[in-house]
Specification:
globular; alpha+beta; 134 residues; 5 helices; five-stranded antiparallel beta sheet; 23% strand
């Protein structure tokens, strides 16, 4: 979704940034996990297919994807890359493009060390707040 291409949402535990090609290699590594494939009902993709998927999601009018970053890591040093702080993703699927208040939110905290810390909860709440501002 182009609407969020220049949006950064800062929470206490997480930072939400638009899903860009910079994030694809790490995302692709996560999605090699059979556990994550099962939990997300996903099929394994090649790296090239993952880049294509990222691009199509960026263009789709009914999908909004943010990468979830660990805020503490992200804020620790100015030179820290987003990829090194990635924890997962959060998605908004609009069920009625004419009414952005209707949709479905999904969250995946893919990085095992980031689970159980409230990252998913905060990401969903931030996405709900963002959705109501559309």
């Amino acid at each position: 979704m182009r609407l969020n291409e220049n949006v950064l949402l800062l929470g206490k535990k997480v930072v939400l940034v638009p899903y860009t090609s910079e994030h694809v290699p790490r995302y692709h590594e996560w999605m090699k996990s059979e556990e994550l494939q099962r939990l997300t009902a996903s099929e394994p993709l090649t790296l090239e297919q993952e880049y294509s998927m990222q691009q199509s999601w960026r263009e789709d009018a009914d999908k909004c994807t943010f990468i979830v970053l660990d805020a503490e890591k992200w804020q620790a040093q100015p030179s820290t890359t987003e990829e090194s702080c990635m924890a997962g993703d959060v998605n908004l699927f609009l069920t009625n493009v004419g009414d952005p208040s209707l949709g479905e939110i999904e969250v995946m905290i893919a990085e095992p060390s980031c689970r159980g810390k409230g990252f998913g909860t905060e990401s969903v709440l931030m996405m709900m707040s963002y959705e109501t501002s559309l």
